């Protein structure tokens, strides 16, 4: 594909507020604050924070609080949840939290909604988690849309503040289930291909085939898709591959039930972990672009064209947070973002 025909979609950032070994939770949050400021200066469209609980690696349990903190330290970039795991919360409380953010900071927030636990079963139970079944999830999304909409005559339960803020909703998914909900409700869809790529094609086909722009809850006129990609950019391929072993070790720890803060990169991943666990990391992070700016841009372009995407949301893990910021800066310049 020639440079003039390449479609450069907007780029956004997905952050789980990672903590490296030897780093305090406060330092991890400060590093994410610096990254959000850098992302804004570089021209990224959105900065989303994903809800996780009980994790030594990710400091993103109280998503709305983190977004409020980031809003105080940025001025333009859109901030959002990537996402709020809706069965962990009441839709009324989510509407109040995000309605309050919008009341304070204006139209800068996206409300991405998922139905996964975002944690282990015991922690999920401690959160008083309700059903994540599709029917119940769709009902909660519908209720949330109503709470954030214009005042309803005679409504006895109202989200104040929140009512009338019209905070945009996105449905998140890693399977065809989320795609069905997003399509039926006419909402934009963000697919978690950065950690669950197996059903990407099928989910996007379901979403596009069943999309209903006339739904009462519709917010977009046509199917609108964002997809996640693991990215690491460095001046050389060798350095990028080396630094990416931190993300691979993180994936292995998650899949093998051995949570811990991020590990430093290793010279040989094959020598550091058993072969069966190495395969887990490869499958978990199959959608990735790792290398020099030119290599990463080429792979992202191919991914966009193959799946006809409207936006990419990229996530990067490095043991040294300064190298994470460098990766996002190299990508922004190579992609041509207007920073």
TrEMBL record:
Domain of life of the organism encoding this protein: Bacteria
Pfam families per UniProt: Bac_luciferase
InterPro entries: Bact_Lucif_Oxidored, CmoO-like, Luciferase-like_dom, Luciferase-like_sf
GO cellular component, one term: cytosol
Entry's Gene Ontology molecular function annotations: oxidoreductase activity, acting on paired donors, with incorporation or reduction of molecular oxygen
Family statement drawn from the similarity comment of this UniProt entry: To bacterial alkanal monooxygenase alpha and beta chains.
PANTHER family on file: LUCIFERASE-LIKE MONOOXYGENASE (PTHR30137)
Name of the protein described by the UniProt record: Alkane 1-monooxygenase
Organism name: Ornithinimicrobium tianjinense
Lineage: Bacteria, Bacillati, Actinomycetota, Actinomycetes, Micrococcales
